[in-house]
Design brief:
The complex is a heterodimer of chains A (194) and B (205). Chain A is of the alpha/beta class. Chain A contains 8 helices and 8 strands; from the N terminus they run αβααββαβαββαββαα. Helices cover 75% and strands 0% of the residues of chain B. Classes of the chains: A alpha/beta (194), B mainly alpha (205).
């Protein structure tokens, strides 16, 4: 036990968000013990698994709010190809006056539990990513997380109906292109029909 | 070789296929998001990154094809292995090149062996993550029936570690097989021929 404690690295030596691979790198001669160390940290509550069973962890501090930047960073480590959708996109692009309660993103894993506060993950088929690319449906990044274009976000919400959207009168529709909206809907409708 | 030894090898190869498929899916999704995010940008860094990602996916597909064909005991496997042995001997030993043009282009390109090792490592970490989740649940609810699932995952992790050791012992041959079969698959794709492995759908173009 004492030997184990001596061998385990200090939690402070790791960034706020880290993976099992990062922990292994800190203890190159005792990589097999990285699992034990991670389990001890999880049991004592000093870290939490971002999205079990993914081996990505976040250091926790009592009462400390989790910033958007940190949430995005943790999500990206767990799901490198996740994309922000729905009302979260409209709010962050300044097209909605109603703020989202949860940060909503899409992943391709069917069973994706997320232990981050105020985050919701939704499943999309693998072909969704290709459809998004073909439709040029990404507008940019928010702390590294790819964001759908406003038109694509509306089309996705209409087709998949599982994400939060602001009230109709809270969205600046005049800033959205009708042509792009119908084009985006066409791209996504094909996926829904499969 | 006993039946147990044989089924162990089969399981190891299945895990190899699983690791490769998981990595192909992850890279394809990442490539789709990367291309869509940088659609408006042009220039060498973006194109270079896209080209490298595609190349990685083709090489992984090549290795996946090799593993599944070996599993099905395809007649051309023995010939391919001999060819890879010969070509591997002809390959020059790589030395660090002081005259590399830029650091970025050098770091971007991943050798076939590193690429495959990363794929196997990703699956290993995935299994370890599942193990951690289960062990944590077990420590919180010791009366639950966790033993069987934990033992199964531990067995899988051990098999995968063994597969990593066994498969990559002859690193240069592995690299030759990856590049050769990756190139064949790419050619087939250009000529509009269907992928020889059913589940390797093309999403990189």
């Amino acid at each position: 036990m004492i030997t184990n404690d001596l061998l385990s690295p200090a939690l402070d030596a790791l960034p706020k968000v880290f993976s099992l691979a990062d922990l292994k790198q800190l203890m190159p001669d005792h990589q097999d013990q990285a699992m034990e160390v991670a389990l001890r940290w999880l049991e004592s509550g000093v870290v939490r698994q971002v999205a079990p069973p993914r081996p990505v962890f976040m250091r926790t501090a009592m009462g400390e709010p989790v910033s958007d930047e940190l949430r995005c960073q943790a999500l990206l480590r767990a799901f490198p190809s996740l994309v922000m959708v729905g009302g979260s996109v409209l709010w962050r692009q300044g097209l909605s006056s109603q703020q989202d309660g949860w940060l909503e993103c899409c992943v391709s894993e069917a069973n994706s539990e997320c232990r981050l506060p105020d985050v919701r993950l939704h499943w999309r088929p693998q072909s969704w990513w290709e459809a998004i690319r073909r439709a040029e449906g990404i507008a940019g990044e928010y702390h590294g997380v790819a964001m759908l274009t406003a038109e694509m976000a509306v089309a996705d919400a209409t087709v998949f109906t599982d994400v939060w959207m602001p009230d109709r009168d809270q969205v600046q529709w005049d800033r959205l292109s009708t042509a792009r909206l119908s084009q985006a809907t066409e791209h996504l409708k094909a996926l829904r029909q499969r | 070789m006993g039946t147990q030894g044989f089924s162990r090898i089969v399981e190891q190869r299945n895990l190899g296929v699983e690791a490769v498929e998981m990595r192909i899916q992850a890279l394809s999704e990442y490539l789709a998001v990367y291309r869509a995010t940088h659609a408006s940008e042009s220039g060498r860094p973006v194109y270079g990154r896209i080209r490298e990602l595609r190349r990685d996916i083709w090489r992984l597909r090549g290795w996946g094809w090799y593993l599944s064909s070996r599993q099905q005991q395809a007649p051309w496997i023995a010939m391919l292995q001999s060819l890879a042995r010969c070509l591997a001997m002809m390959l020059p030993v790589q030395r660090p090149n002081k005259r590399r043009r830029t650091v970025s282009s050098a770091t971007r390109r991943l050798g076939s062996l590193s690429l495959l090792d990363r794929a196997y490592q990703a699956l290993e970490e995935d299994i370890q993550g599942r193990l951690l989740t289960l062990r944590l649940a077990q420590s919180r609810r010791p009366n639950g029936d966790w033993g069987v699932e934990i033992a199964e995952l531990e067995g899988k992790a051990a098999l995968l570690a063994q597969a990593r050791q066994d498969e990559f012992r002859k690193g240069r041959q592995v690299a030759v097989i990856c590049s050769l079969l990756g190139a064949v698959l790419r050619l087939r794709h250009w000529f509009g021929l269907a992928a020889p492995v059913a589940d390797m759908t093309d999403r990189s173009q």
